[in-house]
Specification:
The protein is mostly beta strands. The chain has a single domain, classed as 3 Solenoid (Pectate Lyase C-like). It is built from three helices and 33 strands. It has helices spanning about 5-20, 45-50, 260; strands spanning about 30, 60, 65, 70, 75-80, 90, 105-110, 115-120, 120-125, 135-140, 145-150, 150-155, 175-180, 185-190, 195, 200-205, 210-215, 220, 230-235, 240-245, 250, 265-275, 280, 285-290, 290-300, 300-310, 315-325, 325-335, 350-355, 365, 370-380, 385, 390-400. The protein has a 33-stranded parallel β-sheet that branches. Strand 1 (about 30), helix 2 (about 45-50) and strand 2 form a beta-alpha-beta unit. The termini are far apart.
Length: about 425
């Protein structure tokens, strides 16, 4: 049979399958709220479009306020549109209720994959959550994979913020990604190009060994200790892996709160807590925090090219617990005030590797430090090379042997 006839045969066979519905392409469903100019809108609510959709469909949403709480359980795209010079699609439920999985979210993505949520403003401020449970989030991926792209997420403070003082996990997340006990995944979640503010505990929480996260190029703004609870920008925990790259994270300094009272309320930019192997934290800008990057248990984390500035109460990069193979090459400046009490482990260091906690064998290479009490507080098993220290009172401190810190005064005073 000639080649062209074979090609035509396969085209005909493909056409038969298409006609029989074996193969299908996602279709577009357009949502427009009542009394808004939205050409070709077939639905007035997002939830009705979700109910009518099939896997792979794209739900395009015209600018308006949608007082809805949504659940997605199939591969779908929710995409905000621009119409008549307006480009804000606001999803703001008037009330938020607990779903069947026991958590509260404006958008819940449950037990599915290939979900994309883009160009939407998501506001959870009309919540009545006052405790650490149920967990409150703007978007919650549960046993699920997907992408959050170019969204604005806010309003996840608890109604009574200080009623949840547990350090981890707390409640009030911009984006939460986690899994049921025993779930194997892997679940891949990407959070990128988004704005997150007015959150309770974490702008992004990724929790569980089946979770793989890419948290890239977001703008995250917290208020720090003045919230009355701990606040963290991006938090990866309990085996979660992935990358945190190119984010701009601002929290808040201690202000009028004393150092002793501020440390229990500390805010941190990026946190690893018993994270999985090889997490990459790179090229982030982190400022106005009590710790820029806080690593409490991780293997081979790569912390490279971050700029950390305006740090008070703790350290620019703080390492403790089972941390090994840590690699750091960063720029850190304006770290203070400091404590000269040895039990505080060198608060005021650009980088500090806390002794006696299981952290060892780390590589602190090529860091640039300007304006700090101490440059690097380190254990004797760490490798230090090619670091630059400017306007630093104590360049390095070996916490394995140090019992009294140098006084915070100029030499000769």
């Amino acid at each position: 049979m000639p080649t062209y006839q074979k090609a035509m045969k396969w085209i005909a066979i493909a056409g038969m399958f298409l006609g029989a519905g074996t193969l299908s392409w996602g279709k577009n469903l357009i949502v427009g709220a009542p009394n808004t100019p939205c050409p070709n809108a077939g639905y007035t609510t997002i939830s009705s479009a979700i109910a009518a959709a099939h896997a792979g469909d794209v739900i395009e949403i015209c600018p308006a306020l949608y007082a809805e709480q949504l659940t997605i359980a199939m591969p779908l795209t929710l995409k905000g549109l621009q119409e008549n010079g307006v480009g804000r699609v606001l999803i703001q439920p008037t009330t938020l209720t607990t779903n069947s999985e026991g958590f509260v979210a404006v958008i819940s993505v449950i037990g599915t994959s290939n979900v994309t949520i883009s160009n939407l403003a998501i506001d959870a401020s009309n919540n009545t959550v006052t405790a650490c449970t149920p967990a409150l989030a703007g978007i919650h991926f549960y046993n699920a994979s997907g992408t959050v792209d170019s969204d604005a997420i806010s309003g996840t403070e608890l109604s009574t913020q200080t009623d949840c003082t547990a350090l981890f996990p707390g409640s009030g997340f911009g984006v939460q990604a986690d899994q049921a006990t025993g779930a194997t995944g892997p679940f891949h979640v990407t959070v990128q190009n988004s704005s997150m503010h007015d959150f309770g505990r974490d702008a992004v929480l990724v929790n569980g060994a089946a979770e793989v996260a890419n948290v890239n190029n977001n703008f995250i703004t917290g208020v720090g200790p003045s919230s009355g609870v701990n606040q963290f920008g991006v938090f990866l925990a309990n085996g979660a892996t992935g990358e945190v790259v190119g984010n701009n994270i601002t929290q808040g300094n201690c202000g009028s709160i004393s150092t002793n009272n501020c440390i229990p309320l500390r805010s941190e930019g990026v946190v690893l807590r018993a994270a999985g192997n090889g997490v990459l934290i790179a090229n982030n800008i982190i400022n106005n925090v009590q710790a820029g990057i806080f690593v409490n248990g991780a293997t081979y984390p790569q912390v490279i090219g971050n700029t950390i500035t305006s740090v008070d109460a703790l350290n620019g990069i703080h390492m403790q617990g089972s941390v090994s193979g840590f690699y750091a090459a960063n720029r850190l400046t304006h770290v203070g005030p400091i404590s000269i009490v040895s039990s505080d482990n060198g608060t005021g260091c650009a980088i500090n590797d806390i002794p006696g906690t299981g952290s060892s064998g780390n590589n602190l290479l090529g860091n640039w430090v300007n304006d700090a009490y101490c440059g690097i507080g380190y254990v004797s098993t760490d490798l230090l090379e090619a670091n630059t220290f400017l306007n630093v009172l104590a360049l390095t401190l070996n916490n394995d042997v140090l019992t009294v810190y140098p006084p915070p005064t100029e030499p000769g005073q």
